[in-house]
Amino acid sequence: MISKNTINIIGAGPAGLTAAIVLRKHDFPVRVYEKSSDVGHRLNGDFQGLENWSSGRDIKDLFRDIGIEINFLCVPCYGGTVYAPDMAPAEVKSEIPLFYLVKRGYMHGTIDTGLKEQALSSGVEILFDKRLDTFDGPAIVATGPERADAVIVGMTFRTASKDKVAVIFHDDIAPKGYAYLMINQGHGTMAAVLYRDFKKGNECFEKMKRFFRDNGNPDISNEKKFGGYGNCFLRNTQIHQNKLYIGEAAGFQDGLWGFGMRYAIVSGYLSAQSLINGSDYDRLWQSELKPMVETSLVNRYLFEKFGHMGYRYITRKMAGYNPCDFLRRHYNGSWLKRILLTVANENYKSRIENENGSNKDYTREYHKY
Predict the structure, then answer these.
(1) Which domains does the chain have, with CATH numbers?
(2) Which H or E run contains 179?
(3) Which whole-number Å values give the CA distances from 253 to 262, 267, 268, in the listed order?
(4) What is the pTM of this model?
């Protein structure tokens, strides 16, 4: 165990705040530096999914085990409607939650604000509008994504429509990605997630709106458009000059569909445990997270390779079987996926190089809304 000097954490997202809360529960003094004026500065009050299929442990049990309270909107979702090319809409139903709907941003009820409140009440010092460039001792880096491997263009809105979840797999609407609609208690989010053809973001946004208008027709008011981006990668080590990298700063993201919050929370917990116990952080994340990220990159390769035929396959499987079991099998490793990993990695690297020649332009573009 290291001496209990102040632990500096750079970034007040879910990964950084999870690490801060866990460290404080073990009496470490913690100081969090956040360059923005509040948490959730990149988010817009939009709904996101906290996935519950990649592990046999329910995410709420994970929260309890690592000492995180549910003081934010966290609604279990058991299924919804899936649209794939040239087939009828499919209804997906699960016996356990497929994911939990959470709200993101700086406003009341978001997971970001909930974690901030827990951190502050436990004695964490959070310095907003502050950057940390030099420091003594260990630090945790949780600064979020730096490049656009995928972009999201969406909107939040008010509606009188009933609660619902719907997903579209179609390259004309979300190239190599998906679009989604989530409505809860009069609030809604719809968004297109693009893994290719980023310049078509606004065009895809309009196509998505027309599709959902023509298939379910949710009434919409108080529309607010937003954009964002994310990235996924793997390094051999996440320790550099006494800094532990977590969350998307470490590339911990689901390469298939971008469900990264679970990865972020787990990596924050692991970084804290490494400092509490004096254990090797690299060994911890390589055991818990590396297989998941590697498999997600193989899933991304297969998803892109099979296109619309693959979208129909996924839709039929999710509608015809227990969807959590189906997804869990595909989110965990196999001998075939180990064989495909080298090919998938090379494909992913070449795609990123081709798509992201003007990466900084995209990150500016999707932050301006």
Answers:
(1) 1-369 (3.50.50.60)
(2) strand 178-184
(3) 9, 11, 13
(4) 0.93
